[in-house]
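Hey, can you fold this?
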Amino acid sequence: MYVLGIETSCDETGIAVYHSERGLISHFLYSQVDMHNEYGGVVPELASRDHIRKLVPLIKQTLNESQLQKSDINGIAYTAGPGLMGALLVGAATARSLAWAWGIPAIAVHHMEGHLLAPMLEDNPPAFPFVALLISGGHTLLVQVEGIGRYQLLGESLDDAAGEAFDKTAKMLGLGYPGGPKLAELAEQGEQIYKFPRPMTDRPGLDFSFSGLKTFTLNTFNNSQKTDQDKANIAFAFQQAVAETLSIKCKRAIRQTGIKRLVVAGGVSANKQIRASLREMVELENSEIYFPRPEFCTDNGAMIAYAGCQRLLRGEHQNLEIFARPRWPINELL
């Protein structure tokens, strides 16, 4: 089965073709970062318009790269949520229309399920079951994964997601957009001067909260001399606090579930400090850890094509409804 994957949940247009036996055939990604940088963040209306402009050309480019005709495609998978409503509708309407015109099934894919399954695209994929830490701009989740569509939510962020906290802290330090990578780069120049709190680690449970850490960072910054080195030291302390908080929660999840495999995915999983901290933790816990390659950490069509393929192989498909859901809890997946 050849599956065309379409990802348009936010500010990146991702297209891919995945084959059920041959694996990933080709994929392309167009990022809108340069356009949104002028505004210091994603402008939803501009994101939607840019998806409209780039989507069909990228689909043609991906099919050409795959040396496939539209008649070779057996199904279409598209991101239906969560995400920006306008951006989601562009991908959903295009996917549903192509599926109807080509006479093939289409399947709506949960964006976070795509991230959760992204490590399956690697040569050494994790076996089920595993614990997944999903860290992105809008979500921080701990999920117990027994198989495709068999998910149990263990913990989630009660306020700002880790990626959101990175972006807001970067803006606070005047680093611009996209904030997360810029803060990580600045942190490499920092020194161990400050000790920031590890939020919600002094109480039981697997939920996260990063808004208080963000406030602590702001107060520290306001009380500093605001020099370049001060900013680097604050970035270092903030990043270290987030990394250790995530590690503490993941260790609890491993011990609570008894599952010795940890999958870490989502845009923030590309952060070097977070990866190092989690690797150190799983080694001490005698566990295994799996990351997607950096190009599959951020939004991409390959993860959507893979997730959709697995569901289509199970016989799942949907009617002609154009389905888009900007808020869609992962624990509602069957």
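Oh, and this one too while you're at it.
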Amino acid sequence: MKRLRICLIASSRFPVAEPFAGGLEAQTHTLAGALRDRGHEVTLFAAPGSDPALGATALDVAEFEPSDEARSDVGASPEQWMREHHAYLALMLDLARTGHERFDVVHNNSLHHLPVALAPTLSVPMVTTLHTPPTPWLESAVRLTPPAHGPSRFVAVSGDTASRWAASMPAEVILNGIDTERWRFGPGGTDAVWFGRVVPEKAPHVAIDAARLAGVPLVLAGPVHDHGYFSREIAPRLGDGVHYAGHLASEELIELVRHSSVSIVSPDWPEPYGLVAAESMACGTPVAGVATGALPEIVTAAGGRLAAPDDVPGLADAVLGALELPRMGVRRHAVERCSVETMVDEYERCFIGLLGEARAA
């Protein structure tokens, strides 16, 4: 495999560092490290505070301060949005000027629209990974880019996500991967676990209701990104076998999942991938989840049980059903389906293929 010079663009909202704010930051960290381990030169552009071991260059969203005249515009965007816009605009203009001298390929792993919108200005080809269903700003940028066989190519993290983007742009599917050596087999335990960002679309309150109905104690872990939601829906449900452990460091979280009986994954939106499901199964911890978005692709009968959306009794039954699965079989399914090695193989193939097309063009 040819050694590539890869520009990896991450999200500017949260640092790519432990404890991770969410699955996107965890996936970016895993991908950057794995590509470097294979001998590629990876330059990561990410939020300030990202892991120094990755050699990240800060997308410093605090640089831009609008003038008083600009602030007086009644149609002005919120300052956080403008700072992120400013950071990505500066990066893309710099790549347009000198990117071809420094990089063989740009991998846009962010959620921002500007890298997509400005991809045609680059002399170096770009791969964009679609981590979410369509959003207005990103959909607009995607629709105005050249066809996928040109200097840009789109990848979706699941078949479900690709289908949601199909009307705007075809995308090949490369499933996210996890480090199955780090997320290692565990003995299980008595408590169920729910982990992730504590926000309404992840619906941990549904997991609490299902666990309580199933008669299984539950531990929740993850950063609270919506304090109003936590106060309304989570705090009143705590106690009586339900405990919130806070935002754990990665090794603490891994140990919690390894020693859990079942992992409840309860999204109230079309989950684009569901990294927590892959991480759980890698520990041998079966998943009881909601059959929405990509979860049916990730959690097969070997890895867990799924319930219909908006069906708390069904999710409670899925909890009890998942408890019957042999943990080693769950682990085997994750290693075969969700490993970082498989993900990086696919991205290397994608990068090389795009470089060949760019040279031919």
